[in-house]
Write a structure and sequence with these properties.
21% of the residues lie in helices and 41% in strands. The protein is α+β, with helices and mostly antiparallel strands.
Length: 299
């Protein structure tokens, strides 16, 4: 059976930057094994399969796959698919849609920038939570081909958090350490999960461009993602790290995370976090996406 697909670049409005995404429409009749095979064929960090929603008021149900596994939730698939579905619907102005994901309903606000580009923002369906102690700095350094002195700055130390997908958050001293980082797969499991699919999200306050809050890289080799140009679900969990380590004042705080620069695919992830009574009570991820290609795939 022939099925329509699109590819988009996400967390950018410029083609061939950002994080590539494949979206397969009308995925009814495909089982998980078939979806996984198609995701391996696209070989992007994520491929989305669009299905009818369980609730009529919702826009669609999504299943999301890396080349190696299915995810309950992911950021750039949510942003990119919301932009694409709004384009298909001929949406004008700003509208709200709900996408059903494994984590639950994800509420999105989407608007068209032009015929091929749109902007989407989604509220976190699950607030970040710490998921356990991080590995010792020596093990983390070995897994990233760095020295222990490269790890940590200010009040930041390695931590594990999840807002739907678990990540190991590794603070690095600056861009020099970022550029020197090389995943060592022989040491990976000892530092990052003993075979689990969790990724390592590296961040520093030193940025490539002024006005951005953090520079980041993300590696998830066990999930079939050697490096990710932009990781919205990690940025979602990062809100928990920031709330825990920096204790922002009450109110809403907006910041930009730059990622993908070392890959030649610069991406900008916009994170919003709302504090009340010293606690993180809400968050959102936003970004742009642009259609790159469309075609048919046999299944």
């Amino acid at each position: 059976m022939r099925r329509k697909f699109f590819t988009l670049d996400v967390f950018t409005r410029r083609r061939y930057a950002g994080n590539p995404l494949a979206v397969v429409l009308d995925a009814g009749g495909l089982d998980g094994a078939a979806m996984q095979s198609i995701a391996r064929e696209f070989n992007l960090s994520e491929t989305v399969f669009v299905l009818p929603p369980a609730e009529k008021a919702h826009r669609a149900k999504l299943r999301i796959f890396t080349p190696a596994a299915e995810l309950l939730f992911a950021g750039h698939p949510t942003v990119g698919t919301a932009v694409l579905l709004n384009r298909i619907d001929g949406g004008a102005g700003t509208r709200d849609i709900v996408l059903e994901e494994g984590i639950g309903p994800v509420r999105c606000t989407v608007d068209a920038v032009d015929a091929e580009t749109g902007h989407a923002r989604f509220a976190l369906a699950k607030l970040p939570a710490e998921t356990g102690a991080a590995a010792p700095a020596a093990a983390i350094a070995a897994a990233l081909s760095l020295s222990e002195s490269d790890i940590g700055f200010d009040s930041f130390k390695p931590q594990r958090w999840s807002a739907g997908n678990e990540f190991n958050f590794v603070p690095l001293a600056g861009l020099d350490a970022m550029r020197r980082c090389r995943p060592n797969t022989a040491q990976w499991d000892a530092a990052f999960g003993n075979g689990r699919l969790t990724g390592a999200f590296l961040f520093s306050r030193e940025t490539a461009e002024p006005g951005h809050a953090f520079h980041a890289r993300m590696f998830a080799p066990r999930a079939g993602v050697p490096e990710d140009p932009a990781t919205g679900s990690a940025a979602a969990a990062f809100a928990g790290v920031l709330a825990h380590c920096t204790r922002p004042p009450d109110g809403t705080h907006d910041l930009v995370i730059e990622q993908g620069y070392e890959m030649g695919r610069p991406s900008l992830i916009r994170l919003s976090m709302t504090m009340k009574g010293g606690q993180l009570v809400a968050g959102a991820i936003a970004g742009e996406a642009v259609v790159v290609s469309e075609g048919m795939i046999e299944s």
